[in-house]
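User: I'm curious whether this sequence folds into something compact or stays loose and floppy. Could you predict its structure so I can see for myself?
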Amino acid sequence: MNKILIGLLSIALLTSCNGTSPNKINKDSLSQKIADSIKRKKAIDSTMATSARPDNEQDGLSFDAVKSDLLSSYNKIDHIDTVVIIGKDSLKIHEKYYCLHDSALIIPKKYLWGGDKSKDFVTHNFVSNIMVIKNRDTIINKTFKKSDFNGVINPEEKQYAILFAPGFTGYKKQYDGVIFGYSISIPLTDVGVPAFILINKNGNYRILDEYAKIN
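Assistant: Here's the prediction. I'll summarize afterward.
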């Protein structure tokens, strides 16, 4: 149940540092990590079958360790700050990913595969503020929420998921824009899907559900 979390933390560590230089970003490696770490949606019945096993029979980290990682993320703020040079244009990229501390998500106990399964789990939404400055003009300054991805996620993710694991994949010439990748996943489970934001040089954005569409 926690394999996805391990992969997502790896992405976050690779992409959340300040002052990231675009020529240091291995786009193919990052996209592969996203593809490898985010499992396509599983049926809830399959998830429930796994949850019947005790923690010591689960693969990887224990439920308590996964939960501890989630709780510790509430007070962390991830930043991506970089510059992309495109011909005569300079794009300054700023992203701030953080927790809202809103207690707005109630994860039904049926999703929990360890810990106290007698009650639902209350957690928070996360958001990602992206600002892109083209030369001296701000072309977009928007805080993206999970609801912005409703067109590419499943009903249970709309209701229970969190915006996880921000990652910057760089500039894509064929779209004349930059790409940000995320996982829209239900906390403490491996139920989730990948999603991407494409922002072009005019500040217009599109939400995509598969990296193959932008690769």
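Summary: The helical segments are 3-15, 27-37, 44-51, 63-73, 155-160. The two ends are 28 Å apart (CA to CA).
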